[in-house]
Amino acid sequence: MKRKPKILVVDDDVDLVAVMKGTLEGKPYEVIVAYNGKEGLEKAKNEKPDLILLDIMMPVMDGFNFAEQFSKDPSLVKIPVLALTSFSDSLGQPFPFQVSEYIRKPLKPKELIAKVEEHLKRKGL
């Protein structure tokens, strides 16, 4: 049996996390959640997900600090990161870290699935 791709959702919005988790679990994905960047970084190191959905604005450790620490870890750096942001005017602008794609919130379930599938396909999953 083929293993389910593992997706880590890092966002402080409990309701949005529940929606994303439910949407993704409706497909053949294993979903892990974290509610701030620090927790997300720990789970990324321990769980080695296939893809990360990362909110930018969070307490404890925001997406910028998460990505800075993440990019210094050779065991993590190849994991695609889709950054979620509600700041539409920041899309397309250079951020101080490399991500696979920036996605504007709120996102529709079909859009979420399409983006996840696109990036997992690039990884051969």
Describe the fold and architecture.
The protein is an alpha/beta fold. The chain has one domain: Rossmann fold (3-Layer(aba) Sandwich), CATH 3.40.50. The protein is 37% helix and 19% strand. The protein is built from 4 helices and 5 strands; from the N terminus they run βαβαβαββα. Strands 2-1-3-4-5 form a 5-stranded parallel beta sheet, sandwiched between helices. The longest helix is centred in the last third of the chain and has 14 residues, at 109-122. The two termini are 14 Å apart. The model has no long low-confidence stretch (mean pLDDT 85).
Question: What is shown here, in short?
Answer:
By secondary structure, this protein is an alpha/beta fold.
Helix/strand layout:
Blueprint: E1 6-10, H1 14-25, E2 30-34, H2 37-47, E3 51-55, H3 63-71, E4 81-85, E5 101-104, H4 109-122
Parallel strand pairs: 1-2, 1-3, 3-4, 4-5
